[in-house]
Amino acid sequence: MQRVYLKLALFLCAAVIVGAQEPAPPPPPPHAFGGPEAFGPGMRHPKTIAGEPYSANITTTIDQSLPDGNTIHRVTQGFVARDGQGRVYSRQTFTGGPWAQNGSSGTSTVVFLTDPVAGYSYVLNQSTKTAIRRPLRQRSSDRVPPEGRGPRFDSANRVEKDLGTQSINGIECTGKSITHTLPAGTIGNAQPIVDKSEIWTASDLQIVVLSKHTDPRMGTSTYALSNVQRAEPDPSLFQVPAGYTVEDAPAHNR
Known about the structure:
The protein has 254 residues and is mostly beta strands. It has one helix at residues 2-17; strands at residues 54-65, 71-82, 88-95, 107-115, 120-125, 130-135, 158-168, 171-182, 193-202, 207-215, 219-229, 245-248.
């Protein structure tokens, strides 16, 4: 049963990264109205980013205060790399939950590969030595949303502000803040609910270096890159390791 849960989690995560040329970090909390742009090592670019190799360490921190005064603090460490061809490697170590069911000491390391050269994305589980493979979808840069289905998070209650530029861990970044207000009564709330995001992006690398999202219902999530290196990463990172069993993810409708 544990293996079934683990495979289900891997299938779901594989579906998330289909078509993305950058790996996605842990998803935002439920009802995170700040929008998906508040998260992500590369904001999940719909096109291949070639000619800008890099590697960096990832730290994701979640802090939450409970009504009874208790607090929750979780830190997830990881590593991300992109080569000159636009192939992406992302590794994260999880503690607890379905990702760690088969891991030793309650932890499990999962690797995400996106290979636009071969046309596939992979989710690798080091505990089970399996690689779940999906074909990458090609997205048109001029694709227009169907009539009546504009950007999900664009509304009169969303305010975006330019924060200028600053150096973060030696990387020149441009920043923006996004504030979204959920009016009173929308979900039964007596007062407006305001969540805020702050995102700092390296324009040349086209990656998010630092992002912070605060929602009074779910707490604060912080995503940060450190030790950013611009050299070409080890080519072996972007290959499915020897000894892994490659399984094609089942076809499904969105």
